[in-house]
Specification:
single chain, 474 residues, alpha/beta, six-stranded parallel β-sheet, three-stranded parallel β-sheet, 21 helices, 12% strand
């Protein structure tokens, strides 16, 4: 490993070091870890080093911290800070912005002959072989049970042959993995073979289409133009830069159809993938019903495959209980990731799991647990709990509809399906259709096609019950 690293450094124009809370691999017979050896050898070669050290005050998942090597790592980070350029970073987006700033500053000072050129060309660095992915999260490290979905979505992009669909709207329950699936698509080699690049925007509850389109303009231009001051200006600028170019556009977590409309106008013939949890948004954004793609939860076998990756000891020693839990959580990836992390941490302490299995399945523990770290909220700067993630949908309901949603949780059978007369009885109304329609539009109920019934996901049942409890306490 050390020799391979040295060989790559000898072919490199620039060294970029990213240091968080792991010291990293140490090859047998070597005094230093491979990351430290790379840093030192780059210095010996005289390669410029741009180093980024995580802000020590920024919250970090405990399972991603190597506590055993913290003393050694702290000494190494101190040398990194003293050796030349270094900057502190917090999130992936913060790191990306600071790296871009450092590269831009370096570009203006790196000259060959009489022309200023990017430093990467000075020593003949090879061109990247993959598609240029702009503003997107990294490729997900774990993508289980989504191969068929990936293949269908790839086909919608006209790969391997054929015209791509202009618009695809991916809709599913909160926590079903919509962002994970499209992030994997953004980094897929098949996309790289078809498109010049990928542009990513993430909206969310408080997202700004103007801000995200402005980011696309910076990525597509030279970065020197002032930011657009209106949606129309941003749309026109992006559209002009995308003309006669092949890009894939991904707009994640759309909450309002009006925001999606701006990206459709700016596409200039490039296909757009949208994701949303809301049925009414999907209906308005998708040009036809065929342009909507429903992302379902994992079946029991694929759910167990994901759980086994997350909790290998638990799934091996408690397979029957693990399978029962996966069925109880109805294969929702968000819930499985949190449950797997929680149970694996417990078994590593040598404690029994019977009580925790029951608590997770009943929701008393699950909703209060922190979501996976990729659900970090830039608006608050924290990683929300599972309950808070689900609450984002129910908070947008008017008080009466919110109360009716909570009541469904209290009376939900297993599996949680309701017909209109049953809902009318629980809500004490003559016609349940207006409220059922409102809950379905908000992604909290799903109509079962060909029947008069609606279903509620098991994890949303837990959330609905928690709302009823909160109201009673108040």
């Amino acid at each position: 490993a050390a020799e391979a690293s040295r060989r790559m450094l000898r072919q490199s124009a620039l060294y970029v070091g990213i240091f968080a809370h792991r010291y990293g691999y140490r090859e047998p017979g070597h005094e230093c870890g491979i990351a430290e050896e790379e840093f030192e050898y780059a210095g010996e070669l005289g390669i410029e080093r741009l180093c980024f050290v995580v802000d020590p005050g920024f919250p970090w998942p405990p399972e991603s911290i190597d506590y055993a090597t913290q003393d050694r790592l702290c000494e190494f980070k101190q040398r990194v800070r003293q050796a030349g350029y270094s900057a502190a970073f917090t999130t992936v987006d913060d790191f990306r912005a600071k790296l871009a700033e450092a590269l831009a500053a370096r570009r203006t000072t790196t000259n060959v002959g009489t022309s200023s050129v990017p430093a990467s060309t000075v020593r003949g660095a090879p061109a990247a072989e993959s598609v240029a992915v702009h503003l997107a999260p990294p490729a997900p490290p774990l993508l289980i049970g989504r191969q068929a979905d990936q293949q269908r979505l790839i086909a919608r992009l006209g790969i391997p042959v054929g015209p791509p669909r202009a618009v695809t709207v991916i809709r599913g329950w909160p926590g079903v993995g919509k962002t994970t699936v499209v992030a994997a698509l953004a980094h897929d080699s098949r996309v790289a073979s078809r498109f010049e690049g990928v542009l990513w925007a993430s909206l969310g509850e408080a997202g700004s289409a103007l801000s995200e389109l402005g980011g696309w303009l910076r990525e597509l231009g030279d970065g020197t133009a002032p930011p657009p001051d209106s949606i129309d200006a941003a749309v026109a600028g992006v559209k002009a830069r995308l003309a006669r170019r092949r890009f894939l556009l991904i707009v994640d977590d759309v909450w309002e159809a009006e925001s999606a409309a701006a990206f459709k106008r700016a596409a200039a013939g490039s296909p757009v993938l949208f994701t949303t949890r809301f049925r009414d948004v999907a209906r308005e954004v998708a040009p036809t019903p065929d342009d909507e793609y429903r992302l379902e939860q994992l079946d029991d076998e694929r759910g167990f495959e994901l759980f086994r990756q997350l909790a290998p000891t638990v799934s091996r020693d408690h397979e029957a209980e693990s399978r029962q839990l996966i069925t109880a959580l109805e294969g929702l990836p968000l819930a499985l990731r949190v449950a797997g992390r929680l149970l694996e941490a417990e078994i590593q302490l040598g404690w029994g799991l019977a009580e925790l299995f029951a608590e997770v399945a009943s929701g008393t523990t699950l909703l209060d647990e922190r979501a996976p770290d990729d659900r970090w909220d830039p608006a608050t700067g924290v990683i929300p709990t599972v309950g808070l993630l689900l609450q984002k949908s129910s908070d947008r309901l008017d008080p009466e509809t919110r109360e009716r949603f909570a009541l469904l949780g209290a009376f939900a059978p297993k599996p949680a399906t309701f017909n209109l007369p049953a809902m009318a009885f629980v809500w004490e109304v003559d016609d349940a259709r207006p409220t059922a329609r409102a809950l379905a539009d908000r992604g909290l109920l799903e109509p079962i096609l060909g029947t008069d019934r609606f279903q509620m996901h098991a994890v949303l049942v837990l959330h609905a019950r928690s709302l009823l409890t909160d109201d009673e306490e108040e």
